[in-house]
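User: Before I run my own analysis I want an independent prediction to cross-check against. Here's the chain; please return only the C-alpha cells and, at the end, one sentence I can use as a sanity check.
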Amino acid sequence: MLSRRVFLKNGAFAFVSLGFAPSFMARTAVAASGRARQLIAIFQRGAVDGLSLVVPHGDAEYYRARPTIAIARPNGGDATAIDLDGFFGFNPRLQPLKPLWDRHELAVVHACGSPDSTRSHFDAQDYMESATPGVKNTADGWLNRYLQAQHADHPSPFRGVALTSQLPRTLQGTAPTLAVSQLAQFGIRAGQSSEAAGASFEAEYAAAADSVMNGTGRDAFHAIRMLKAADPAKYAPADGAAYPRSAFGQSLRQIAQLTKSNVGLEVAFADVGGWDTHVNQGAAQGQLAARLDDFSRSIAALVTDLGDRMADTVVLTMSEFGRAVTENGSRGTDHGHGNAMLVIGGGVRGGRVYGRWPGLAVDTRYDGRDLAVTTDFRDVFAEVVSKHLGLRDVRQVFPGYASSPSKYPGLFG
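Assistant: C-alpha cells:
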C-alpha cells in the first residue's frame, strides 16, 4: 500500500480550475496541431513607476518634480534615457528591448490605467485582473472569460497556464486553467514510487462516483502524460537566448518550453514583484534599475527564444497603477494613477508610443499629483483580444464596459 504521505509537488492538481463545468476536453482530444494565436500576460505587481520605465524626457515638468530620481535626458551615455521619438525614452536598463522598438515589434501605451481612483494594491490588482474596475464581486478573471468565450477546436489541458505557485485572479473561472511553478515537478512526486503512485491515484479518480472529480482527475493525468511526452527536461533555448536565473526569467523560459512543446498553450501568465519603490527608488542605478534589468533581459530572451513564433504571439505587460509625479522625501515615489504598458510581437504596429499625453503640469495631473489616465486599460486588453486573438464579440470578456474599436489605441493594423 502506498502511503498517504505521497504528495503532489507544488499542488499541481490543486490548481486545476474546476469550476463546475463538464470535463474540459473530449476523451479523444489532442493538442492543437496548428499555430494558434497566443497571449503572454506579464503582471508587474507593486505598481511600477511608468515615468521611469518610459521616460517623458521632453516634458520639463518631469525634471522639476524629480530632482534626484529623474532619468537624465538622452545624450548617449549609459545612465541617460534611450531616446525613442524625441519626447519619450526608455530607462537605460531597458536597452535589451530597444532592438524590438527599432524593428517596430514593440509599442508603448502611456498614460494608461484604470478609471477607478483606488491606490490600494490589493483592490487595483483585483480590478485589473477581473477587468471590472470598482466591482469587487466579479466571479472570474478576464483571461478566463476569454477562454470561455473563444471556441477551441482541440481544447488542451494547457490552454491557459500561469507560471506561478497559485492560480492568479485573472485565470480563475469556469474555463479550465493550470498554475504550475515548475514544469519539471508537475505530477505525482513520490521518489522511486512516483510511477506506481500515479497509477494508483489515476485508478482512484477513475473509480470516483462524482462526475466532476472523475473527469477532472482523468484530464489532469492526461496533462501529465502530455507534458512528459514533451520532455521539458531536455529543453534548450534557441538562438543563444540567455534567460536570467531569476524566478521571473525562469518563468518566461518555461513559457517558451510550453509554447514550443506544442501542447496547445493559448494564454500564459507570469508575474514579477518588487516595484513598490517608496524609498530610495534610484534612477539609472538602484533598486528600480535592478528590477528593470531583470525584467528587460528576461523578455528579450523570451522573444529571441520564440523566434518566428512571435508572429503569432503578443507579450503584454501591465501593473496595477503608476507612481506619483513628484518624488517624496525619501527619494522614492508614492502610489499614483496613470502608467505605461508594453505590447510586443504578433503584428503590433510598434515603434510608437500610443495614447494621448496629458502632460505633467500640476493643473493637468490627476488629483493634482498623478499622471492622468487617458486610455482605459480595458481598451488595450480588448484590442488584443479582438485584433490579435480574433474574438469577434468582446462583451462577454469585459462585462459592463462599452468597448468599441473607436476606443482602441490602434496597436494593430
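Sanity check: The two ends are 61 Å apart (CA to CA).
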